Amino acid sequence: MFRLTNDRLRRRLTLGVSAVVAAALGLSGTVAAQGRNPAYDTARRSGLVGERMDGYLGYVGSPPADLRGVVEDINIKRKAVYAEKAKANSATLEEYALTAGCLAIARTSPGEKYQAPDGSWQTRGDDPPVRDRRCP
Amino acid sequence: MISLSSTDAATAATARLVETRRRAGHGLGKRTAVLGAVALAIAAGGCISVKAPDKPIVIELNVNIRQEVVYRLAEDAGNTIQSNPDIF
Question: Helix H segments across B1-88?
Fold first, then answer.
């Protein structure tokens, strides 16, 4: 067989490493896309938690004890993200949170719960959800 | 002569109206009776009606946030949600 020159070797190694890295990134990307805590995902789909108008998760009825920690953890993380993004956009945390709430409600899948402008929990159907009049 | 036994203004006014008409030779007539009854009802009652508002109830969440701000932040918020799929 032919002898690999330093040049070719370097190129092959780079290609090989790049391929491995790309594969790894691709894999982690897939995981992250559905990166929800399974308990949260299940609760959301079964309508135990829903999207509140103000941009946070809310309990529909009385939550099981093991769900509280999961939901509160998520809400704390949301709040941190809102705080950071609001500052970057010269807005208040509440303004950013309300905007995110508008969009989060729009993203609900049929069967999931969301909070309507009158405060009640509604089940998402195929129609667009009823949202605050300020929502885009 | 009619003696006014009630101090209620509407009753008194109605009684005066009746007396005036009687003196003038008119009968009471249906209209006078109706007007008199209405005047008495308003004076006696004060109508209180309890019914649900016609407009749907809306919880005014963060009343001070304007729509234009929400629109301005919408794109960035959308990106934020996409970038944080674990918490949304």
Answer: 9-23, 29-44, 67-83
Instruction: Using an 8 Å CB-CB cutoff, list chain B residues near A89.
Output: 72-73, 76
DSSP H or E run through A42: helix A38-45
For B32-64, the pLDDT digits (tens) are 677 766 666 666 666 777 776 666 666 766 888
Surface-to-core class of residue B52, CB atoms within 10 Å of its CB (0-12 exposed, 13-18 middle, 19+ buried): exposed
Which helix (H) or strand (E) element contains residue A18? helix A6-33
Contact A119, A58 (CB under 8 A): no
Residue B28 binned pLDDT confidence (cut-offs 50, 70, 90): low
Contacts of A107 in chain B (CB under 8 A): 81, 88
Instruction: Decide if A74 touches B, using CB distance below 8 A.
Output: yes
Closest residue of B to A36, CA-based?
A: B86
Q: In this complex, is the C-beta atom of B52 within 8 Å of any C-beta atom belonging to chain A?
A: no
pTM: 0.62
